[in-house]
Amino acid sequence: MHHAISLGVQSDFIVSHLESDLIDQADFAVYRTLGSPDFHFGNFLALKVPLATKNRVDWEQEFDVSFSGVEGIAHRNFIWPIIASEPTPVISDYERAHYEYIENHVLMMPSNALLTPSRLNTALRIQPFRDDEQIWSQWRDISVAQRDQGHDEAGFRHYLAGRERTYRTLARFGHGDFYAALQGERLVGFAGVFMLNDMARYQLVRVIPECQNQGIARTLIHQMAQYVGSKVSQQIIIADADYHASALYQRLGFSLAQRGGCLCQWPGYARPPVDA
């Protein structure tokens, strides 16, 4: 039983189309970003068959062959759409091998369906980053401070430098930008949005911990959605299925289009063994 690669993966290409390759195979597509081998979500297999079609060792062999000769790859990552008619994958064997499992919501919105929330944070100043070095410096520091546990700072800053190059190159080519939510000159929240082929894809929505629950995220995304809505007809955003952001985006007019699964094995992540 074959299916298309996930909507999330398809929209990822909006952000990485200047640097990434998507190589089609029978049971999966190989998504490669060779210039950033430490970018886990730029180097993975996008499955076109159920995860249960092959066992863990077989999938790992497919990954290793697909990325053989690529210097710097130190992880394995598999991404697939969760389809109701397919059997629920058993991931305990992956968890014992220290894979991190993530389930995401792929949310889509026609640009003319944007809803205005009852409350917006009118004290914010929202503007594109462009080449404002003061804002980019704060972006780096916030991103490092909020990195996932298990990523050492030096390695994460190296990864972040690659992402910054990508985002700033996209902005120079007119594909979008990151947007800052500012209180005075202080960056309290940010998000990126990039456009290609009549679709926009959001990236890395963040609010600093001490300023959460102040309507910053909804105000920021609402203003960004208004802007990109004049340029594209469809907008897409990815949210962790277990995080409240999915509900926030749905209150702005986004709706659940697909659920996606991801299993990633990476240095620094170690899950305790679980029972089968």
What do these coordinates show?
There is one protein chain. The chain is an alpha+beta fold and 276 residues long. It has 2 domains: 7-104 and 260-265, Gcn5-related N-acetyltransferase (GNAT) (Aminopeptidase, 3-Layer(aba) Sandwich), CATH 3.40.630.30; 111-258, 3-Layer(aba) Sandwich (Aminopeptidase), CATH 3.40.630. It has helices at 7-16, 56-66, 92-96, 133-145, 153-172, 216-229, 245-251, and strands at 21-24, 28-32, 44-47, 76-82, 100-110, 125-128, 176-183, 186-196, 199-207, 234-240, 255-265. A hairpin with a 3-residue loop joins strand 1 and strand 2.
Counted up, domains total 2
Which parts are unreliable, with pLDDT below 50 for 5 consecutive residues or more? none
Kindly state the percentage of residues in helix.
Answer: 25-40%
Number-wise, the strands total 11
Outline the secondary-structure elements.
Layout: H1 7-16, E1 21-24, E2 28-32, E3 44-47, H2 56-66, E4 76-82, H3 92-96, E5 100-110, E6 125-128, H4 133-145, H5 153-172, E7 176-183, E8 186-196, E9 199-207, H6 216-229, E10 234-240, H7 245-251, E11 255-265
Parallel strand pairs: 3-4, 9-10
Antiparallel strand pairs: 1-2, 2-3, 4-11, 5-10, 5-11, 6-7, 7-8, 8-9
Provide the descriptors you would attach to this structure in a database record.
eleven-stranded mixed beta sheet; 276 residues; alpha+beta; Aminopeptidase; 2 domains
